[in-house]
Please model this.
Amino acid sequence: MTPRPSHARINPTRRTLLGGATAAGAAGLLSGCVTAGGSDESDEATGAVTEANPLGVPEGTDLEVVMFNGGYGEAYTQHAAEVYEGLHPEATVDHQGIQRVGETLQPRFVAGEPPDVVDNTGAGRLDIAQLAASDQLHDLTELLDAPSLDDPAVPVRDTLLPGVVEDGTLDGAVRFLNYSSVVWGIWYSTSLFDANGWTYPDTWDDMLALCEEIKQSGIAPWTWQGKYPEYMVDPLQAMAAKSGGIDLVKAVDNLEPDAWRQDAVLAAAEAVHRLVTDGHIMEGSEALSHTEAQNSWNNGEAAFIPCGSWLEGEQQEVSPEGFDMVMAPVPDLTASDAMPFGALQGTSSESFLVPSQAANTRGGLDYLRCLFSTEVARGFAETAKALPVVLGATEGVEMTSGLASVADAVGSAGEHIFGYKYRLWYAPLAKAVDDATGELLTGRLDPEEWGDRIQAAADEVADDDSVTKYQR
Model:
């Protein structure tokens, strides 16, 4: 998948999520040009509200859906389009899968001619916080209160996992809905580990010791997606959070002074930096794209790779038979971490939105009602090998090794699932974190310099009165 999300990772990573040079540039242009537009509900095309058409879609009006075609593929969004056309037989869905969502769609937002539905994911995605601040996103509350496709007595909001509505809420309005339940960890092949008698480590010291053993076998201990440094941000900030606790995460998100210089943050940076200084990273990883690094890992050239829970789906066409990939939580930074070993960085990801200036906003809302149905969500789990946010959608789905490991990890983590918000709220800061981490992983910055550079970027955002601030 192209860098997220990230996180929102988001994320590719869809994560990834939310940042990148293109996204930052788009945000700047949008902030200067879009505010004159905004939502005009009086001009919204509507149809008759009936039991069969609870959102008042104007019949015979076509729908345009633009989605990020990454690791999850297009099958599930095409499935939703088929369901939509079944509900509205006089309409046609123009479904497009693209890369670089921000680069492609930003001019259309500026011109006031966006698509009706956008999957805003991948590297270079649109800055969702800026779109919300510019009143470019339709409030999805009406969709959440509408009867679900599966049971008209149950509103859409009650079919979603806890936290999904909160994740998409900015300034009191629901501006987007994420589709995938994403967690981040470290991936390895159980068949490779079983053949060599290796055991996944509980602590980072154990990880470094195992890396020395792995090197003796002629395999590189680690590779990473060098062109997209946010992949390595994830294990670093996971270790920081597990060591320092949720107050550390909130300090980072709230742009508190010296948040990036906290002891646990710098210790996590030092831990990751040891992969460089101890020679545990596959030569040439810095120059690899996400797919190139993942393919090298699939080919047995490296034992570990960091990634979100979408990895198996993204690699399913190239992963060799019997590879048996699994995801595990990031090892503890210390033996006295504030969070337990199984704690996971996670969130919902793959952000779907309805632009307020779209030609068919009612149709956009109803398309999302189809997308978040059990039928479509179950298909997503089967084809994407990932967990959807729709309750009960994975019941009866045959679990592959990777998907089963993700489900087990989520179950074991229980309430100890945490996530950072700064990537969603402050795209320029996310880019600064990614850039500095890329330098850290190539030895051009040491951990202290890494922390100083990111803290300077965080302070710049905090001091910029033009940037909307959020608190948690």
